[in-house]
Specification:
This protein is an all-alpha fold. Helices cover about 75% and strands about 0% of the residues. It starts with a helix and ends with a helix. This is HEAT repeat domain-containing protein.
């Protein structure tokens, strides 16, 4: 399935393969790397969202997935797709300060109500764990 994902000529196939890999790939390094590559290279936004979401489900604590999602957030902070990356990063590495930075950036840069609402919802969900965190406090104030 990993090879099919990489070399599939059909543009709809990656979406289905990612879902299948998510079912069987928990903690599997080859699957995680394949999903990271898909996030970094695909031009299809829906496939990218699917791969990001799958990483959030199967890459718990994986340093490569964490680094890839943090990089993704930095490159795409003005795009509403970053909400998916922030959610997945929160699932993989809930103490990563890049999540808060990205969500706060969304409030400054986005004008769509849906994206701001999603960022608000995620921030409300994860913010209690940042109370008393000096780095997070400087972001809020």
């Amino acid at each position: 399935m990993v090879l099919l994902l990489k070399f599939s000529p059909n543009q709809d196939t990656p979406y289905y393969l990612i879902r299948e890999l998510e079912e069987v790939g928990s903690g599997n390094e080859a699957v995680i790397i394949s999903l990271i590559e898909e996030v970094q290279t695909t031009l299809n936004k829906n496939v990218c969202i699917c791969a990001i979401t799958a990483l959030g489900e199967i890459a718990n604590g994986n340093s490569k997935a964490i680094a890839a999602l943090v990089e993704f957030l930095h490159r795409n902070s003005c795009d509403n797709i970053c909400i998916y990356a922030a959610e997945s990063l929160a699932a993989i590495d809930p103490d990563n300060i890049a999540i808060i930075k990205t969500l706060l950036n969304i409030f400054d840069s986005h004008r769509t109500v849906n994206t701001i609402w999603q960022a608000s919802r995620l921030l409300a969900t994860i913010s209690p764990k940042y109370i008393g965190n000096k780095e997070a406090d400087t972001l809020f104030y």
